[in-house]
Each structure stands twice: as C-alpha cells, then as structure tokens.
C-alpha cells in the first residue's frame, strides 16, 4: 500500500481527505518503463494510473501503420479514470514516453468508490474533461501549425511535466509522436539548435533557452496550459 497523501500526483493531492482515504488502501506503486504499453486501443481498462514521475503518451494508430500522439499525461493527471465513469474501453493506446513511476489501482475498485462519492466522481469527470480538451487542441495543432512551433510546444510540455531541461528523446520517437518522418524532425531540430534554443546529441535534448522556445511554440502550448489551470487548477511547476 502506498500513501497517496505524500504523492506528487496532482489528482491525488487535490482530493478531499475523505476521498483520498478511500483510495489509499487500494493504491500500489509501480514502475513505468520506457516504451511500455499500459492500455491498448479499444481494449478493456483494467487499472487506473496516477503518475508520480515520468510521462505517458496517448497514441492514435492508423490503418496505414502510422501513429500520432493525441495527448500526454504526467504528474498533472490520471490514466484510465474514464473507466470509473462507465467508459470501460480505452479510446487510445497508452505508452510510457519517459520512464518513471505511478500509483495504480484496479479500475473496478475506483468505479465502486466513485459510485459512492459525488465529489470523487466530479474530480474524475474534470480530469476526463481536460484530457479531451488537450486532445482536441493537439488535433487542431497538427492540422494547422508547422512542425517547428509544434516541436517547440511538445518539448515544452514534456519539460513542464518532468521539471527538468534535459530530456532523453530520439528523433525517431519524436517523429512518431508528431506524426512525421525522422528526416523532418532532424531538419527542424537543427534549426532550433542553430538558433540556440536547444542542444541535441545522442538521443538527448537539452533546452537552453526556455523563453526563446516559448516564443517559438504555437499558441497551443499556452492554450493547453490554460485548460489545465481552468479545469483542474494545475499549472507547470506545481505538484
């Protein structure tokens, strides 16, 4: 059993003492390994995850074999909470983008607890609202924005969730997340590096100029953060 009250996960930290106490006996700590699949698209959700470190990507796969990220979850959210609100199938594939850890519990247990607590149901619903808003904004971003501001937005989001400026990310992985080929990512990463915004070498990206990268990012970065602030009270830099 793990103590969610000492967790860096924003969802658990934001719960009422009563709701948190009801969850605590069912929470177990688990490691999140890079590349691990936590949920498969259109398969039953068996566990709900509350990340305490690391980043989980929500992936949409196409029939042509391409994949694109629809959103990401870290210490600011939960994965699979929809299962407690009668949506028992995952609508996207969830993979660990950056390794870390999480507290998890069986989805059926969370549903039973939510059925008995209106405040817990409300908190879970707000989390699902912000995930939907995030995914909608990313879809619009992918449709209308160029790769350079999209990549800047994506790097900033990962940096916000990890709270560090050095990220272990390959260009191939970046391409998969953004739905483009590796060559395109290489060209844009070089431009950002030439501009002094990042440093890229051997699968690591270091953000050198945070304000400059924020200026380069599309407005979707600020909009996504505004959704999190307005709907669940989370801002980058807070647990």
Topology, element by element:
Layout: H1 10-14, H2 17-23, E1 28-32, E2 37-39, E3 47-61, E4 67-73, E5 93-106, H3 107-116, H4 118-144, H5 147-162, E6 166-168, H6 171-178, H7 182-194, E7 198-201, E8 204-207, H8 210-216, H9 220-232
Antiparallel strand pairs: 1-5, 2-5, 3-4, 3-5, 6-8, 7-8
Helix pairs in contact: 3-4, 4-9, 5-7, 5-8, 6-7
TL;DR?
With 239 residues, the chain is of the alpha+beta class. It has helices at residues 10-14, 17-23, 107-116, 118-144, 147-162, 171-178, 182-194, 210-216, 220-232; strands at residues 28-32, 37-39, 47-61, 67-73, 93-106, 166-168, 198-201, 204-207.
Could you explain how this protein is built, in words?
- It is a single chain.
- This protein has 239 residues and is of the alpha+beta class.
- The protein folds into two domains: 4-116, Sandwich (Jelly Rolls); 143-229, Arc Repressor Mutant, subunit A (Orthogonal Bundle), CATH 1.10.10.10.
- The strands form two sheets. Strands 1, 2, 3, 4 and 5 form a five-stranded antiparallel β-sheet that branches. It has a three-stranded antiparallel β-sheet with strand order 6-8-7.
- It has helices at residues 10-14, 17-23, 107-116, 118-144, 147-162, 171-178, 182-194, 210-216, 220-232, and strands at 28-32, 37-39, 47-61, 67-73, 93-106, 166-168, 198-201, 204-207.
- Helices cover 44% and strands 23% of the residues.
- Strand 3 (47-61) and strand 4 (67-73) form a beta hairpin.
């Amino acid at each position: 059993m793990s103590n969610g009250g000492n967790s860096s996960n924003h969802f658990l930290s934001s719960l009422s003492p009563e709701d948190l106490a009801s969850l605590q006996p069912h929470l177990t700590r688990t490691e999140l390994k890079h590349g691990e699949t936590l949920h498969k698209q259109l398969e039953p959700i068996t566990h709900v995850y509350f990340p305490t470190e690391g980043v989980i990507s929500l992936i949409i796969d196409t029939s042509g074999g391409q994949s694109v990220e629809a959103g990401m979850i870290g210490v600011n959210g939960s994965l699979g909470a929809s299962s407690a609100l009668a949506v028992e199938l995952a609508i996207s594939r969830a993979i660990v983008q950056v390794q870390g850890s999480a507290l998890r519990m069986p989805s059926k247990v969370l549903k039973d607890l939510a059925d008995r607590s209106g405040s817990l149901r409300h908190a879970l619903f707000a989390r699902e609202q912000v995930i939907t808003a995030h995914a909608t904004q990313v879809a619009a971003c992918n449709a209308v924005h160029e790769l350079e501001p999209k990549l800047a937005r994506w790097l900033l989001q990962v940096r916000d969730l990890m709270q560090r400026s050095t990220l272990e990310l390959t260009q191939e992985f970046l391409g998969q997340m953004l739905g483009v080929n590796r060559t395109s990512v290489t060209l844009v990463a070089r431009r950002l590096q030439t501009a002094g915004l990042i440093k890229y070498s051997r699968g690591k990206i270091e953000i050198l100029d945070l304000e400059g990268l924020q200026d380069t990012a599309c407005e979707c970065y600020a909009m996504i953060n505004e959704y999190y602030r307005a709907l669940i009270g989370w801002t980058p830099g807070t647990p």
